Amino acid sequence: MLLGVFGGVFLVTKQETELKEGILEAIDRAKALSKPVLVSEVQQINHIDPLTFFTAGVEGFFGERFFWKDPSEETFIIGMGICNQIQSDQAAGRFFHVENEWKRLIKDAIIFNRFNLNGIGPLMFGGFSFDPLKEKTKLWSKYSDSLFHIPTFMYSVIQGKAFLTTNIICTQHDDHTLVEIINKEKNALFSSIIDAKKQDGHQLVKEIEINPAEWKETVSSVVKELKQGPLEKVVLARETRLIYDKQVEVENVLELLLKQQQDSFIFAFESNGDCFIGASPERLVKKTGNNLFTTCLAGSIARGKTKDEDQMLGEELLNDPKNLIEHQYVVQMIKEAMEEVCEEVSLPKETNLLKMRDIQHLYTPVAGVAKEDTSLLLLVDRLHPTPALGGLPKQEAVEKIREVEELDRGFYGAPLGWVDYQDNGEFAVSIRSGLIQKDEASIFAGCGVVKDSNADSEYIETKIKFRPMLTALGGNNK
Ligand SMILES: C=C(O[C@@H]1C=C(C(=O)O)C=C[C@H]1O)C(=O)O
Ligand SMILES: [Mg+2]
């Protein structure tokens, strides 16, 4: 295999590439089946800093990258280039539709992977909008309601080991020159790792909270309705728009998130020039074989300035009836959903605290063993939106949000993550997030409104929830 001088430093592989024979075989198969065939090859490679890899793609792959890190830092997945995408604006059966498309692609794929790990080989990364029936604004015009990318090059660090997956779609019209094309692209990418450098930083010039007074009025009117029932909880969200002196560099924002929000999922998902980015503490669901993990996260309070104050605030949260109810709705719904698809479900009796840099939450982790044939996207379908982002009852709460919320949530508060070809994967609830659009950005925050909510306190809660993104985006760290 031909390697660039610099590329060779990083692309020292522990095996010969099988891609060439795979491509030839796939072209034959594409001819026989009269449909495109995916070839995927996994190589173990030397370790590269994940952010450096992401940054190296800025020249060749801008707009076609993604970045993912889980809170335990067991899994980093960085994608470059779009080998294939699954996208749709269809609302009914959207999770099922994506799963079917994915299975169809995988069924005839030629895969070279000798490592028994999750998060390598053919994998799709992406997510879903919060509510496909919400009227669309131009804010989210670059993202379909279901959008997944299968990357051309994917760098994964799994439990400290580094891998490169190369994915290629072969059609009946392709020939052996495809091998050279892909190797050239690979070498160019690995050569640019050496001179991957960041641009001069962007400066925030203006911060515009979108209609805060109206938002508070909406909260108050929903509280009135909650007092009458049958609605019990509705999550209401809002937006702050940020204006910059020049284009926002996604790499800089990611770097700050990685430093400042280490215990979070960190994600970035580029589409058609925009970038959805965030640092979420909330897992929707993780699947490893038949083992499922999900999280109930709802109920919030500020962090203290001193250790004592922080502990006091934590105690206050653990004993606050309004927040406990807000949390309990989530536990109740997630437990029921898990029991439907699991042989067994376990969760702690006591509610715990999850402390992030800017905020603390009530937290209940839930684990389960899935029944046969329970797929990851089936779980996403069952869980989304949990009452942490939607409300209770689910359907009525989503309809209420659709009716009264000014914000077009798009991908905010929705499932974002990855699924590999063996149906392992993980989705976060994409909160503490923002959408970068050239020299502007929108950030989003919401909170659980129950009948004991007060509009001013909920407003302050959303202020705190803006902080992780606002800080990383150069805003005031207040
Ligand atoms: C809606 C958000 O967060 C959710 C709402 C919470 C609450 O109201 O207490 C807590 C955690 C999240 O489930 C957000 O961060 O935007
Ligand atoms: Mg709350």
Overview of this structure, please?
The chain is of the alpha+beta class and 478 residues long. The protein contains 13 helices and 21 strands. It has helices at 7-10, 19-33, 50-56, 58-61, 94-107, 177-191, 212-228, 250-260, 307-318, 321-341, 376-383, 394-404, 455-472, and strands at residues 37-44, 65-69, 75-88, 110-112, 123-128, 146-158, 161-170, 204-209, 233-244, 265-271, 274-280, 283-288, 291-302, 342-346, 352-355, 359-370, 391-392, 415-420, 425-429, 433-437, 440-449. The chain has a 21-stranded mixed sheet that branches. A hairpin with a 2-residue loop joins strand 20 and strand 21. Helix 5 (94-107) packs antiparallel against helix 11. The chain is globular and about 70 Å long. Residues 1-9 have low confidence and may be disordered. The structure holds ligand ISJ and magnesium ion. Magnesium ion is lined by residues 299-300, 326, 447-448, 461.
Offer a concise description of the structure:
The chain is α+β, with helices and mostly antiparallel strands and 478 residues long. The chain is built from 13 helices and 21 strands. 49% of the residues are buried.
Low-pLDDT segments: 1-9
What does the overall shape look like?
Answer: globular
Mean pLDDT: 94
Distance between the termini: 53 Å
Helical coverage, percent range: 25-40%
| Overall radius of gyration | 23 Å
Please state roughly what percent of the residues sit in beta strands, choosing from under 5%, 5-15%, 15-25%, 25-35%, 35-45% or over 45%. Answer: 25-35%
Which molecules are bound in this entry? the ligand C=C(O[C@@H]1C=C(C(=O)O)C=C[C@H]1O)C(=O)O, magnesium ion
Largest sheet: 21 strands, mixed
Number of helices: 13
Structural class: alpha+beta
For the secondary structure, the number of strands is: 21
Protein name: Isochorismate synthase MenF
Domain Chorismate-utilising enzyme C-terminal: 213-465
Cofactor: Mg(2+)
Pfam family, one: Chorismate_bind
